[in-house]
């Protein structure tokens, strides 16, 4: 007769392949989950970024008002006409706004990354929301402080044959409003991926091969080894 094989001992408590006990949730990298105070601090930082970017929209609006090309108009007492029918100033105003918004997105993303290198979803949302609100504010400032939108009254005021500027308008509203937030999110995510902190690599205990069996001097037949380090025992003869 042969006796059954000696059952292996239970694996030690520090076995990396041992399942996590029921009801426990380990955070990635062995770190503790963030506390409520950390979440509040992250939301507060995101709120500050949103407010600062919204206020920066004032600078974007003033720069657009200063740099955007003007569209010249002229009146003959009966109607108002473009002084140069082949003029591209209207398209130039849209392009100026989009280029300035892209530059503001790049600068704001770099500043936020330097302020908080670890990143986080809250900061990305703050960049998107702040960029959108800043673009809306810039659009309003440019149109409000630019030439009057009452073209007929302006033409009567300046008189017949006198050139005056058309209102500053943004025709490509979608591109203008999305340029800043999209550029800010893309640049910030790129900087975080390239230069952000890395999560520590998990340290697995040595001794397990590709087939999941332990190897070493105490390995049993076929390279196998019981978790307690002893060699596999064969059948015993009575």
What is the fold's blueprint, element by element?
Layout: H1 36-67, E1 72-75, E2 80-82, H2 89-115, H3 121-145, H4 151-158, E3 164-165, H5 173-195
Question: Care to give the gist of this entry?
Answer:
This protein has 238 residues and is mainly alpha-helical. It is 48% helix and 4% strand.
Output the keywords.
single chain, 238 residues, mainly alpha, 3-stranded antiparallel β-sheet, 5 helices, 48% helix, 4% strand, elongated
Count of helical segments?
5
Task: Kindly report the spatial arrangement of strands forming the biggest sheet.
Answer: 2-1-3
What's the count of strands?
Answer: 3
Question: How would you classify the helix and strand content by structural class?
Answer: mainly alpha
Helical content band: 40-55%
Overall pLDDT metric: 76
| Global outline | elongated
Rg, rounded, reads 34 Å
Which stretches of 5+ consecutive residues score pLDDT under 50? 22-31, 213-220, 222-226
What is the terminal-to-terminal distance?
6 Å
Along the chain, the helix and strand elements come as: HEEHHHEH
| Main sheet attributes: strand count, strand direction, barrel closure | 3 strands, antiparallel
Note the beta-strand portion: under 5%
